[in-house]
Design goal:
- By secondary structure, the protein is of the alpha/beta class.
- It has two domains: 62 residues, Winged helix-like DNA-binding domain superfamily/Winged helix DNA-binding domain (Arc Repressor Mutant, subunit A, Orthogonal Bundle), CATH 1.10.10; 238 residues, Rossmann fold (3-Layer(aba) Sandwich), CATH 3.40.50.150.
- Helices cover 48% and strands 16% of the residues.
- The strands form two sheets. Strands 6-5-4-7-8-10-9 form a seven-stranded mixed β-sheet, with helices on both faces. The chain has a three-stranded antiparallel β-sheet with strand order 1-3-2.
- Helix 1 packs across helix 5 and helix 3 packs across helix 4.
- It starts with a helix and ends with a strand.
Length: 312
């Protein structure tokens, strides 16, 4: 089912069906077999809410939204090969990270980058943080949002993925923002990625949906990352926006998307993040950081933690 819907999305069929069309007309528009596309659309209309059948025509519903397109690009796009070649990674897990399709991941973030930073600009505004380094900045959505609400804002984005850097820079140019710079570099080693002058100017560090990538080897990876941030930015506030994992935990709730994300984290070598605030606090303490405050979404497992990086 997921591959079928993903194919309709990838080929642009769902976009074509923004207005009702017969399967024959849709097939002709995309150079597809009419009988096969008809059967696939029938199946999609029966099994999902993304397609509806109106008489002899098919139409994409309002559920084919930017959020659903983001999910398709992420789970059936960026992580597709991790699922298809799972037998290989079960034997050799270290190969899993390289299977992630970074171009499809960039496309997913292009569509839904604002989802990852939801609520963060408001928290930063309340805390009056400025001169921010956004670790793993992705599309630059957070930096753009902060710059648009404060003309005096100065920010830096650190991102390893070159296609993501291009996307972030394009977005900044489009918005006409002058006070934000995107730097390509490894967020696991900020002292090497950033020159001393920039490190000294940074007042606050943010990391949105970045820490969860560090759990492939258990808690040791994220502890080492936090200690690296301490050395680079001693005494500075660190704002982490992430989520509580659920796969394998005793936490209750029908959080299907969270468990799905846990699964793709697992098969892509990123590991499943801790399921509770208590476990995250233990990690901060081990890394020599002081936990200050938590904002937790009661409808999902997402959170924002404010942590103070300890001295060197």
């Amino acid at each position: 089912m997921s591959h079928g819907i993903s194919t309709l999305h990838n080929l642009g069929v769902l976009e074509t069906l923004r207005r009702p069309l017969t399967a024959t007309t849709a097939a002709k528009a995309h150079g597809l077999d009419p009988a096969l596309i008809s059967g696939l659309l029938e199946y999609a209309a029966v099994r999902t809410g993304l397609v509806r059948k109106v008489g002899k025509s098919f139409a994409a519903t309002e559920l084919y939204s930017p959020e659903s397109q983001f999910l398709l690009e992420l789970y059936t796009g960026a992580y597709r090969d991790n699922s298809v070649h799972l037998d290989t990674f079960l034997r050799c897990p270290k190969l899993a990270p390289a299977a992630v399709d970074r171009k499809r991941h960039t496309q997913a973030i292009k569509i839904g980058g604002s989802f990852a930073v939801k609520g963060v600009p408001e928290v930063i505004r309340q805390l009056q943080f400025n001169r921010i380094l956004d670790i793993g900045c992705g599309s630059g959505a957070l930096l753009v949002a902060l710059a648009k609400q404060n003309p005096d804002f100065v920010g830096w984005g650190l991102e390893m993925n070159p296609s993501m850097c291009r996307l972030a820079r394009a977005g900044i140019r489009l918005e006409g923002i002058k006070g934000v710079r995107i730097i390509r570099g490894d967020s696991r080693n900020p002292r090497q990625a950033l020159v001393a002058d920039i490190r000294s100017r940074v007042q606050t560090v943010t990391a949105c949906q970045v820490a969860n990538e560090m759990f492939g080897a258990g808690f040791s990876g994220v502890v080492a990352w936090l200690r690296g941030l301490r050395r680079a930015f001693p005494g500075r506030p660190l704002l982490i926006a992430d989520y509580y994992g659920r796969l394998g935990s005793k936490a209750s709730g029908d959080e299907r998307q969270t468990i799905l994300h846990d699964y793709v984290q697992l098969i892509s070598g990123q590991g499943v993040p801790p399921s509770s605030l208590k476990q995250w606090k233990a990690i901060y303490a081990e890394a020599g950081c002081r936990f200050a405050h938590a904002v937790e979404d009661t409808c999902t497992t997402r959170f924002i933690h404010v942590v103070v990086l300890g001295s060197q």
